[in-house]
Structure formats: structure tokens, C-alpha cells
Amino acid sequence: MSNQELINAGMKQMDKTDQAIERSKQVVHQTIEVGTQTATTLKGQTEQMGRIVNELDSIQFSIKKALQLVKEIGRQVATDKCIMLLLVLIVYGVIAIIVVKKSGASYGIKASKSKLRIQAQLQEAMQDHKELTKEIDVLKEKLEKQ
């Protein structure tokens, strides 16, 4: 091989090397672009995750408040049932007093019948009282479970 052929072969090799370097530079440039895009996407996703965590905290706080309200409403319902029971007993008592006063003039058989009716009404009131007390106990147990 002559010197010129060697120079030409060396030049071809240098051209191939220069082309390989250019391709490598392009690959590096593309890699930097992909890395930049990935970093931008990752930053956006990190911010989105932060917002999601804040929303979850807010939802959890709202759920706690709702549970407190449900418990308070349950207590109010139990109190209302107790008051209703007392009102029923008072009404039965007033009815009993009225019946006794009206039949108070003749004591004989009428008084006995009135007394029996009053006793029956009082027994009904006591039964209603027991049923309402059971319902109140059930509601209290449900509230305590929550």
C-alpha cells in the first residue's frame, strides 16, 4: 500500500469516527431532552400527589365531623323518645283523673269499673313505657358501636 492509500484509508476511518461521534452527540442530545421531559412530568405528578393528599385529609376531617353529627342526632332522638314517653304518661294520668272525677259521685259498681279501666290504661302506659325504653336502649347501643 502506498502512502496515499494509507492516507485515504485513515481519512475514511476518521470520517466514520466523526459520523459515529455525531450520532453519539445526537443520542446524548435526545437523552437530555427525554430526561428533561421526564423531570417535568415527574414534578407535575408530585404536585398532583400533594393535592390528592390534601383532599384526602379534608375528606377524612369531613367524615369525622359527619360521625359526630350522627352521634349527636342519635342522642337527640333518644331524648325526644324519653320526652314523648313522659308526655304519654302524663296524658294517661290526666285521663285517669278525669275518669275518676266523673265517676266519683257513685262509688259502687261504677267506681270499680272505672278503677279497672284506669288500671288497664295504666298497664297499657307501662307497656308502652317498656317498649320505648327498649327502643332507646337499642339506639344507644347502635350509637356506642359507631
UniProtKB/TrEMBL annotation:
Alphabetical list of InterPro entries matching this protein: NPSN/SNAP25-like_N_SNARE, Sec20_C, T_SNARE_dom
Membrane topology, record value: Single-pass type IV membrane protein
Protein name in UniProt: t-SNARE coiled-coil homology domain-containing protein
GO molecular function: SNAP receptor activity; SNARE binding
Transmembrane stretches, start-end: 83-100
Family classification: Belongs to the novel plant SNARE family.
Cellular location(s): Membrane
Residue ranges of coiled coil: 115-142
Keyword Transport: yes
Keyword tags: Coiled coil, Membrane, Protein transport, Transmembrane, Transmembrane helix, Transport
Domain T-SNARE coiled-coil homology per the UniProt entry, residue ranges: 11-73
Source organism (scientific name): Arachis hypogaea (Peanut)
A GO term from the CC aspect: Golgi apparatus
CDD domains, alphabetized: SNARE_SNAP25N_23N_29N_SEC9N
GO biological process, one term: vesicle fusion
